[in-house]
Q: What sequence folds into this?
């Protein structure tokens, strides 16, 4: 279950290394590029390498004039936000609203967590690979970096339970159960992975 969160409602909680304006501006751009199918990498609220490359490709694809290579940094006292601010002239960033939403963790999210076998051969026998933690499952669902999910939810992601409410980027969620419910095919046999027909669980 998802609920919209006004931008101003994201708190400047102690422990945040960047201020809200910095984080929101970078996240808004990443969401814009992600929705336009110019993947900025995992959403992390930063103007990282993948985000800047995605922005360049977006501009080229839409015939937008490339900005000057010289960029400036946000002047925020006490901020450790090292990323240069790209020129976003001509982009409809206002279409990304809200930037963050509240998401209620479901039982299905928790069911995606499990123990992963150590060997590749044993993993090949599984119909799907479980996540190590609920935080990883939620992060994957919203295409967000785990450390950014932790930054948005200080002290909440270590022990996630169904019914917990987390703050996440406003991106269409990926349904892990789409993968979980797939039927295992012959390409996912132990023989395929190990080359040893004796390890193939299928009957001769």
A:
């Amino acid at each position: 279950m998802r609920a919209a969160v006004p931008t101003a409602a994201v708190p400047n909680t102690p422990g945040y290394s960047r201020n809200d304006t910095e984080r929101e501006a970078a996240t808004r751009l990443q969401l814009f590029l992600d929705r336009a199918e110019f993947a900025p990498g995992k959403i992390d609220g930063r103007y990282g390498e993948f985000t800047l490359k995605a922005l360049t490709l977006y501009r080229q694809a839409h015939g937008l004039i490339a900005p000057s290579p010289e960029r400036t940094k946000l002047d925020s006292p006490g901020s450790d936000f090292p990323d240069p601010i790209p020129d976003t002239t001509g982009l409809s960033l206002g279409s990304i609203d809200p930037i963050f939403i509240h998401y209620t963790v479901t039982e299905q999210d928790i069911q995606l967590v499990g123990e992963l076998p150590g060997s590749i051969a044993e993993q090949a026998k599984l119909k799907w690979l479980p996540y190590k933690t609920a935080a990883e499952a939620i992060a994957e669902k919203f295409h967000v970096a785990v450390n950014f999910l932790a930054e948005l939810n200080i002290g909440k992601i270590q022990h996630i339970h169904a019914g917990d409410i987390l703050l996440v980027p406003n991106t269409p969620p990926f349904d892990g159960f789409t993968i979980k419910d797939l039927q295992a095919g012959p390409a996912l046999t132990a023989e395929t992975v190990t080359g040893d027909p004796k390890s193939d669980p299928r009957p001769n």
